[in-house]
Each structure stands twice: as C-alpha cells, then as structure tokens.
Design goal:
The complex is a heterodimer of chains A (956) and B (150). Chain A is of the alpha+beta class. In chain A, 53% of the residues lie in helices and 11% in strands. In chain B, a hairpin with a 4-residue loop joins strand 1 and strand 2. The chains are: A alpha+beta (956), B alpha+beta (150). Chain A: Belongs to the adaptor complexes large subunit family.
Chain lengths: 956, 150
C-alpha cells in the first residue's frame, strides 16, 4: 500500500480501498461493499453523535463506493452537515460529495444553499472558493435562483481576492449556461469586460471564458471587448518567452489565454477601427511567422501549444474571410502540416482546410493540395484521419476536378471502413449529381456506387437517379442500356434491380431494337431476379411488367401467364396479390388506347432540393454541410441544387430550364421544367412513390404507385378535412398519457405535451417539418363536433389557441400552446385541423385533440370502508356503466399473483369541471383464466360513467 | 469542455468530472462507450476523434488514459495541453504520480482539478498558483492521526 503523501490520511478509508482492490471477484467486491454500507448506516443511525472526522471519513467512503459505480441512497444529510464544519477538510469533503452526488432533492438543496450562503459571506477566500466551486459543479436551477444575483457582485467588487474572482467568473458562466434567464445583465456587465485588462493573468484567463459566452448571446453589449482583446493579444504575442513567468508554457507565452482571445474575436466581424484592425493583422502575421521559426524546444508540448494558437488564428482568418493574403498564407501553412509526421497535425490540417476550401480567396489554393489529400485517403492508417481526408475532398470538389475526386472516392469505397461507407456513398452521389455535365457519367457513377456498396446506398440515392433519368430525355437511352448491362451480372444488388426495373419499365423501348436486348430478353432478365427480391422490389417489378405490356404488346401473353401463376395471384402478401390481380385484369380488358393512357411514361418530377443533400445534412447535423453549400451557392450561382427558395439562383436556373447548358446541371432545373399532361400531385416526389401511403393520403392523394401517374390531379378542398379514420385510435393512445407523438406522416410530425390541474389544462403541440422544404400558409384551428356545441346547448370545453407562424422551415419545429378549460363533462374530443402548403399542394388533415374527460380527474384517498359505502350510494342503474371485455395486452401475472387480495382493483376520483364536480368510483375485476376484465364505473352523472367506461376499457 | 474521464488500461474508471447535467444512467453509458472506443485504438493513432456531436481528445500516460470531450468550436491541441498540465499538477503534488496515488487519494485528484478547471474552462493555468492554492488548503488541515479507524 502506498503511503498517503500529504494532508491528513484517513486510514480507515485507505484500508477499505485496499480491501476492495484485493477482492478477487465482482461478488467479493459487492460483499465487501455491502458490509461497509451496513457499517456506515449503523454509525449514522447510532445513538452516539459522530465527531467531524468520522463523519468525513464515512462520507468519503460512500463517495468512493459511488464512484466505483454503485448506488448510494443515504449519507446526503451527513454530507450537508459537514458544510457547516469549521474544519476545512471536513467542509471540503462535504462539498465534494454534494458536487458529485447531489440530486434535486428540494429539502436538501435548501440546506446546501444555506451552507453555501454562509461560506460566501464568510470573507474567508478559501471557503468562498469552495462554495463557488460547488455552485459551478452542480449548476442547478435552484442554485441559480439563489446566487445568480450575488455572484456578479463578488466578481466585480474591488476588494475581492484574485482567486475568488477567477472562481466567481466561471461559476457565473456555468449558471448562465444552465439558466440564462436568471443571470441578469446590469452595471456589472461593463466592468466584466474590463477584466480583460486585469493585471493578473489568471483572472483574465477565467474571465474571458465568461465574456466569450456572454458576447455570443449579446454581441452589442459586449462589443467593447474587441479592442481590449486585440491589445491584450498583441501584448502577449510580442512578449519574449520569459516575460510572462509562470504563464509561459514550454516557451510559449500564455497559450490558453491566446487561444481564448482569438476565440472571442471570432464572435465579431473584423474590427472597423483601422488602427485596431492593423494591430490585429500584425498579430496574426506574427503568429504565422512564428510557425516558420525553428522550435525553441523539442518537446511536443511546445509545438502543441504553439500550433494550438496557430490553428485558432487560422480559424479567425477564415472567419473574417476578407484578407486574401492571410488566407493564402494560412492555406500554405496547413499544406505543410498535411505532410507532417505528427498524425494529430495532419488530422487538424485536413479539418481546417475543409473550411478554407469554401472561401473564394483560398479555394484555388486548397485545390493545389489535391494529390496529397488523395494520398492521405489511400494511406492513412487511422480511420478518423481518412474520414477527414474524404471530407476535404468533398469540400474542395468543383467542376474542374469532380471526375478525379469522384473516381478516387469510388475506388476508396471498395475498401472503406464500414462506419463511414454510408456517408461516403451520399457524398459521391451528391458530387456526381452536382458536377455532372454529361449525364452518362452521372448514371455510370451511381450504378457503380450501387455495384460497389449496394447495401449502403440509401433509398434517397436510387430515387434520385430515377428522378434525373426521367427528367432528362437525353440520358434515358443510355440509362436503359447501362442498367440492362449491369443486370447481366450473376449477383447483383437488389437496389440495382429496383433501378433496373423502374428504368426498363419506362424506357426499355429505347433499347428494344437491338436483338440482344429485345423485349422478351429484358423481361426474362428482370424476372430472373424476381424470386431473390424482397416484397417492395417485387411489387415494383410487377408494375414494370404491366408497363412492358404497354410498351411491347408482344410480351403480353408471357407476362399475363406470370401474373396468372399461383405464386402471384395467390400470393400471401396482399399487396403483391392485389397488383397481380389488378394488372392481369387491366391488361385483359383495357383497349390499347386506354392502356397507353393509363401506363403513359412518367411525367417529369418537380424539381426541389436533393433529398440526398438533405439526408447528409441530417447525418452531419446542421451547419456541417450547409455552410459550405451556402458558400458554393454564392460562388457558383445557379449550379447548385440547394434550397429551392434562393432567389438569385432560381432565376438563373429558370432561364436554363429547358436547354441543357453548362451552368444548368441536373438539379438546376428546379423551376418548371417541361411538364407534360397531368401535373403530378403533391406527393409525386419520388421519395413518396414507394413508401406506404401515409396518413396524409386524403389530402396528398398520392397514387400509391407512381407508375400510374396519369391519374387526374386530386381536387383538394379548402374546407377542413373530415377526421382521419385513425384519429380515434390516436386519441385512445393518449387517454393515460400526457406526452408523446400524436401523429406522424412523411411530411409532418406532431408531438404533444400536456398538463392538467383541476378543471384547467394546457397543451403544447409541436409541429415538426420532416422535409427539407418549408411549409407555407401553415395554420391550425380547433373546432368542436356537433355534440359538443349544440347537444348540450352550451360549450363543454373552452379552448383557446394561440396562432402559429405561417411559415415552417424545412427541418424546423414550431410550438403552439392551447389552453383548455373544462366547463362541464363531455364525450367527444375537439377536432384539430391543420392546413399548409407543401410544394404548392394544400395539405389538410384533421385529428382529434387528445383531451378526454379523465384528464380532469383528481384522485381521492379513501379507506375501503368509505369506498364501499359510497359505492352502495351510487346504486341507481343509470349511474353505473359496465363493460366486460377481453384483455388486449395480456395480464401481468406477476402483478396479479403478488397480492393475494387482488381479486379486484378499485379507484376513486373526482372529475373537476367548472360547472360541477363529479365523483367517480371504479372497480376492475380481472379474470386471469379467461383473460377477461369486468370494468364497472359509478358516478353521480350518467354521461360521465358511460364515457369513462368507454375510454378506460380501451386501455387494458 | 463537457466532461473529463480518467481510466486505466483495464477499463477501470479512476476519475470522472461532468460539466454538463446528465443522468447517472447516461453517464454510465457514455463512459462504457468511450472507454471501449478509446481502448480499441492503436498507439500511433491520432489523439482526436469525432464522437456523437462532440470531439474527443485523449492521451495515455503510463497505465492511465485521460480523455476529454469538447465541443465543436473548441481547440483540440490546447485541450491536449490541458490534460498535460493536469498531469504535471498531479505529478508535482504527489511527487511522480502513479495510478495508485489517484486511487487512494481520489479526493485530492478532484480538488486539484477544481483549482485548475472550473465549469469546464481553465480557471488558473499557472502551475505555481494552482499548487499554492492546494498547499494552502493542506496547511489549513488539522493534524489528526491517532483516531481509531474501522
């Protein structure tokens, strides 16, 4: 056992720790711990008052046990007692225990806050620091409420010790992060900024973290910090390596503070004041110069600290994006690091260059490093570095190098780590689409992608290739030929079959002239894959077959025979069976003209943001992709397929819409392309084509199979749609739940959170836009069904809704608050109608708001005697409602067995309405053998008994 | 910084410091996941990795791994030196620190960390000043050695 080096040893603790270490097994450890816990418990409960030392020791043991990963459910009180000890170590252990183990036990928080308050006002700096550390470590809301006013005063008071100031600054930062509403700006704000000038470097180091965070939220109030930060930085940068004494770290002056200063400046645009800006540029140049100087030490700490500042300076240069000279110098510096022997530096250089690539000043400079980056992708041994290299290739890609980069990424994909394949696939798909000048290259690339990494090709990717082929008639013949060839491979991926089926079904005629790909050969090729495929693919193939009958009448009898076979027409899958039956019938009764109309070629898809891009954004989180994409958009005008609403871009794109020109790429035609015949209905985005028709179907009217798209456009009325068939089921889900997802389809998710008190309720509805396109004219309304309104001649519910913003951005969520007052009991739920336009089509859906009468229940406590007495009082037949039903969730045997007298369950409660209170009694009698329940409700009001019985019977 | 973990080569957690509110369950899950990820990495690999939406910076000292989770805009290299400075502080305080010192005096390891980092940000980067604060605290301690122990 090592000797305890300093301070007071707690021998008992040391013995206990060695015991634990000597335990041979997990069981032995648990046994030892349980013994110790019993011992401590008895000491704490014992009659003899424990002295401070013992209390400290036991609390420390409990802490050790907790940190080993065991649960601790006592000792909190003893720890709190230690806070009021006047012995420093006892206080310290008390605070440590609380910092690590505190839970929001309100009783204790009050006591803890009391202890903290005493120490804060003690004027003993060591005690004050301990208390501040505790607040910073716990950072709970209760603490913010208690101390958010006090700490700023401590921070700026003239007589506060430096060490206390440091703790106070970071303590305030923590409180501001957890409860920004409680930290009020005031006259202390300006004094905090001036801490940047403080004599003591430690105070500046601590304060700057606070200032940076506050500046991000309130840039205007803190903007004086810019010039202060620049002059501080300049003093540090120009100081000799020994000037700052202990703040010099391995010959680098104040690296932490320098980084933080540079970080703070990134919250603001370049300084407007010429002198300040000149000084800053000088600093940045000095930092870049220093990188070229020979190192003052061979230690890695020296170079790390120096380079930490360098990278932060480069981040600032990129943030300003206005000094071409500095940007190019930064790029050259990073270029050197790309070949550095330190893996860490190569990693960071690749990462940092990604952001440089999006600046118009340095984009070309970054491109000169392409060979090095490709080499990194091929040879780096660490997957995280390879991933950065792939990111950089993606960022530096433009029309001039797209073919090379896509080819390199494709070849890397063959050996890429599984963890990054899906992302790589998305990136290749996006680049191929974005920079395709010749569409055959695009088709080749995507088919290669499916061939190499079929499992990682998400639906978005193959949907997209089909969209593009359909929209561009110059590539259709090539696409048909290429998929036909790809399908010849003995083992080909199911995604290839999907693309093949779709494209041959549409454009097989374009290659049918060649006897090697005659209609029957095409059909046989597709059909040879049929039995290997999953149900959705088979369904797609069946649709391709019916399209074949239209394209090639000579295949009709062969295909009808296939459809007629038992494996199709009697398929156990209802979707396949239905298709087989319907297609067979269609092909035999419809005239060729009708057939030709029904099975006409797909009209072009409306252009919109690439679903692949949206997916990548989602994968990487917002910002990661979008920032570079925005930059690209700026640089390359209409080339980008990005957000449909970008004004300038879409005008360029529109002018190029129908004639392919170099600047209109595949996705540029987002405004109207040549749309034939019937405009596709709202749902005809390819993404929707094969998915199950969502609950939005009544409004979207998506023909569930996009092939047959010449269906007439649906007529959408402006009147609220009738409630959806499943709205009752959705309602029942919420009878005993107050939070959850109320509704979800492909476009929209509605979450609900609700709380009730007496006869009042408040409900929060969260409307989430699941698409990447904004919803416009978004509006909601709450209406009542007839029963609620007229039957009782007065309203039963008073529902107030606050209007929502009419615009819901792609991926965004809006919240709506609904206040509900229950005036009298009711049976029907209010209706919630939601309307919005998505891609021009009106979406209109109606749901039931999950408000049921049981939400206004208040439980009542009564002993069994009282219960049965009241039960007897409510014995009139109309006061009772009863249901006998089969258990739909199975009975939890353990629950039933565990309690012997549990032949039946009883509950009592009061429904609170404004008009009256309705007492209710419930009795539930399970019959485990028959798996049946009998539910009986009695209340003073017949309608209430009946409604509650209906509602609750659904829940078992 | 969101949290700092110290664990041994055998995957035993020696110190955990959380600067964001998380449930115990979530903490255990994160710890398990990260210990596994970091231990699986080979020695020459890069000290940084992306994990969920955070950046992990780690370094091994003898048998102990020091592992920090930082946010997107935080600086990886300076975090690496935060780790190093903490190791130096422990080393100076214990006199060539080893894993056992941290096991047996875990509370001291926490106290030193609190003097150096607070709320996930550097509070005092001067080695002298941090050690001075700790030593002052040690001086405040009463001497009690002859009390019975259990």
């Amino acid at each position: 056992m090592p000797a305890v080096s300093k301070g007071d040893g707690m021998r008992g603790l040391a013995v206990f720790i060695s015991d634990i270490r000597n335990c041979k097994s997990k069981e032995a450890e648990i046994k030892r711990i349980n013994k110790e816990l019993a011992n401590i418990r008895s000491k704490f409960k014992g009659d003899k008052a424990l002295d401070g030392y013992s209390k400290k020791k036991y609390v420390c043991k409990l802490l050790f046990i907790f940190l080993l990963g065991h649960d601790i459910d006592f000792g909190h009180m003893e720890a709190v007692n230690l806070l009021s000890s006047n012995k420093y170590t006892e206080k310290q252990i008390g605070y440590l225990f609380i910092s690590v183990l505190v839970n929001s036990n309100s009783e204790l928080i009050r006591l803890i806050n009391n202890g903290i308050k005493n120490d804060l006002s003690s004027r003993n700096p060591t005690f004050m620091c301990l208390a501040l550390h505790c607040i910073a470590n716990v950072g709970s809301r209760e603490m913010a409420e208690a101390f958010a006013g006090e700490i700023p005063r401590i921070l700026v008071a003239g007589d506060t010790m430096d060490s206390v100031k440091q703790s106070a600054a970071l303590c305030l930062l923590r409180l501001y992060k957890t409860s920004p509403d409680l930290v009020l700006m005031g006259e202390w704000t300006s004094r905090v900024v001036h801490l940047l000038n403080d004599q003591h470097m430690g105070v500046v180091t601590a304060a700057i973290s606070l200032i940076t965070c506050l500046s991000q939220k309130n840039p205007d109030e803190f903007k004086t910090c810019v010039s202060l930060a620049v002059s501080r930085l300049s003093r540090i940068v120009s100081s000799a390596s020994t000037d700052l004494q202990d703040y010099t770290y391995y010959f680098v002056p104040a690296p932490w503070l320098s980084c933080k200063l540079l970080r703070l400046l990134q919250c603001y645009p370049p300084p407007e004041d010429g002198a300040v800006k000149g000084r800053l540029v000088e600093c940045l140049e000095t930092i870049l110069n220093k990188a070229q100087e020979p190192p003052k030490s061979k230690k890695v700490q020296h170079s790390n600290a120096k380079n930490a500042i360098l990278f932060e300076a480069i981040a600032l240069i990129i943030h300003y994006d206005s000094e071409p000279n500095l940007l190019v110098r930064a790029c050259n510096q990073l270029g050197q690091f790309l070949q550095h022997r330190e893996t860490n530096l190569r990693y960071l250089a690749l990462e940092s260059m990604c952001t440089l690539a999006s600046s118009e000043f340095s984009h070309e400079a970054v491109k000169t490093h392409i060979e090095t980056v490709i080499n990194a992708l091929k040879t780096e041994r660490d997957v995280s570095v390879r991933q950065r290299a792939a990111d950089l290739l993606y960022a530096m890609c433009d029309r001039s190098n797209a073919k090379q980069i896509v080819a390199e990424m494709l070849s890397y994909l063959e050996t890429a780590d599984y963890s990054i394949r899906e992302e790589m696939v998305l990136k290749v798909a996006i680049l191929a689409e974005k920079y395709a000048v010749d569409y055959s290259w695009y088709v080749d690339t995507i088919l290669n992608l499916i061939r190499i990494a079929g499992d990682y090709v998400s639906e978005e990717v193959w949907y997209r290739v089909i969209q593009i082929v359909i929209n561009r008639d110059d590539v259709q013949g090539y696409a048909a030929k290429t998929v036909f060839e790809a399908l010849q491979a003995p083992a080909c991926h199911e995604n290839m079959v999907k693309v093949g089926g779709y494209i041959l079904g549409e454009f097989g005629n374009l290659i049918a002239g060649d006897p090697r790909s005659s209609p029957l050969v095409q059909f046989n090729l597709l059909h040879s894959k049929f039995h290997l495929c999953s149900v959705p693919t088979r369904a797609l193939l069946l649709s391709a077959y019916i399209k074949f009958i239209n394209l090639f009448p000579e295949t009709k009898s062969t295909i009808q025979e296939v459809l007629r076979s038992d494996s199709q027409i009697r398929n156990s899958d209802v979707e396949l069976q239905q298709r087989a039956v319907e297609y067979l019938k269609l092909s035999s009764i419809a005239s060729t003209d009708v057939l030709a109309t029904v099975l006409e070629e797909m009209p072009p898809f409306p252009e919109r943001e690439s679903s692949i891009l949206a997916k990548l954004k989602k994968k990487k989180g917002p910002g990661a992709v979008s920032s570079t994409e925005q930059e690209d958009g700026k640089r390359e005008g209409g080339e980008l397929n990005g957000g449909g609403e970008r004004g300038a871009d879409s005008t360029i794109a529109a002018s190029n819409a129908s004639t392919p020109s170099p600047s209109a790429d595949l996705l540029g035609l987002r405004s109207s392309g040549p749309v034939s015949a019937a405009p596709p209905s709202a749902g005809s985005l390819l993404v929707d084509v094969f998915s199950e028709a969502g609950p939005a179907a009544p409004a979207a009217a998506v023909n569930d199979d996009g092939f047959l798209s010449s269906a007439p456009p649906s007529v959408v009325s402006e009147d609220p749609a009738p409630p959806m068939p499943q709205s009752d089921e959705l309602l029942h889900k919420f009878v005993c739940k107050s939070n959850g997802v109320l509704f979800e389809n492909q476009l929209l998710q509605i979450g609900v959170k609700s709380e009730y008190r007496q006869n009042l309720g408040r409900m929060y509805l969260f409307y989430g836009n699941k698409t990447s396109v904004q919803f416009v004219s978004f509006s909601t309304s709450v209406t009542y069904t007839g029963e609620l309104q007229s039957h009782i001649h007065e309203l039963s519910l008073n529902v107030q809704t606050k209007p929502v913003e009419p615009l819901v951005e792609g991926g965004a969520q809006v919240q709506q608050v609904i206040n509900i007052e229950c005036l009298t009991d009711f049976s029907d739920a209010p209706l919630l109608n939601i309307k919005f336009r998505y891609g021009g089509a009106l979406q209109n859906l109606t749901l039931k708001l999950p408000v049921t009468v049981n939400k206004f229940f208040q439980p009542t406590e009564m002993v069994s005697h009282d219960f049965f007495q009241r039960w007897k009082q409510l014995s009139q037949p109309q006061q009772e409602a009863q249901k006998i039903f089969k258990a739909s969730h199975g009975m939890d045997k353990e629950v039933l067995k565990g309690k012997r007298i549990m032949e039946n369950f009883v509950c009592a409660g009061v429904i609170q309405t404004k008009a009256q209170q309705v007492g209710c009694l419930l009795r539930l009698e399970p019959n485990a053998q028959a798996q049946m329940y009998r539910l009986t409700l009695r209340s003073s009001k017949d309608t209430v008994s009946k409604r509650l019985c209906d509602l609750l019977a659904e829940q078992f | 910084m969101q949290f700092m973990l110290l664990f041994s080569r055998q995957g035993k957690l020696r110190l955990q410091k959380w600067y964001v509110p998380l449930s115990d369950k979530e903490k255990k899950k994160i710890t398990r996941e990260l210990v596994q990820t970091v231990l699986a990495r080979k020695p020459k690999m890069c000290s940084f990795l992306e994990w969920r939406d955070l950046k992990i910076v780690y370094k091994r000292y003898a048998s102990l791994y020091f592992c920090c989770a930082i946010e997107d805009q935080d600086n990886e290299l300076i975090t690496l030196e935060i780790i190093h400075r903490y190791v130096e502080l422990l080393d100076k305080y214990f006199g060539s620190v080893c894993e056992l010192d941290i096991i047996f005096n875990f509370e001291k390891a926490y106290f030193i960390l609190d003097e150096f980092l607070l709320g996930g940000e550097a509070q005092e980067t001067s080695k002298k000043n941090v050690l001075k604060a700790i030593e002052q605290a040690d001086l405040l301690q009463e001497v009690c050695c002859s009390l019975p122990s259990s």
